[in-house]
């Protein structure tokens, strides 16, 4: 009688570098990123997908990495907040966060930035939100629209006005 297999080999790209690792089927993408690959940008806040501190971009779409099993990330491209810039220059969203002082303790900031990048791409593609007036028209990036689309990312320091201002500034660039 053979033993059941509880691990799989996963190949994924994280911030431009390819990794092939063997993971236990119970390991989340967040734990793989932090514990195995040493990525420190995504944070473990609630571990229930409620705070957004672990938000990363997977193939360009925002995702809470604490709710995703690592085996589901086989073959994907993961971008953390650390992988958004060029090394020499901040990503426009990160630059706007800096200019608008859109952080206090900074714990949620990497997740906020990844979520904002994904959210701006959603708006650009015409995806409506709950507060969009016309579901067939291109969404207008109002204050209410930004707040609704970013509602999955919590800031314990309540830097929300500055976060909204930073997203508005980044959208104009």
Automatic annotation (TrEMBL):
Keywords for the protein's UniProt record, in alphabetical order: 2Fe-2S, Iron, Iron-sulfur, Metal-binding, Oxidoreductase
Coiled-coil boundaries: none
According to UniProt, this protein's pathway is: Alkaloid degradation; nicotine degradation
Q: Mind listing the GO molecular function terms for this protein?
A: 2 iron, 2 sulfur cluster binding; metal ion binding; oxidoreductase activity, acting on the aldehyde or oxo group of donors
Could you tell me which residue ranges the 2Fe-2S ferredoxin-type domain spans? 8-84
Classification via PANTHER family: OXIDOREDUCTASE WITH IRON-SULFUR SUBUNIT, OXIDOREDUCTASE, IRON-SULPHUR BINDING SUBUNIT-RELATED-RELATED
The record's annotation in InterPro entries points to: 2Fe-2S-bd, 2Fe-2S-bd_dom_sf, 2Fe-2S_ferredoxin-like_sf, 2Fe-2S_ferredoxin-type, 2Fe2S_fd_BS, Aldehyde_Oxdr_Iron-Sulfur, Beta-grasp_dom_sf
Q: What is this protein called?
A: 2Fe-2S iron-sulfur cluster binding domain-containing protein
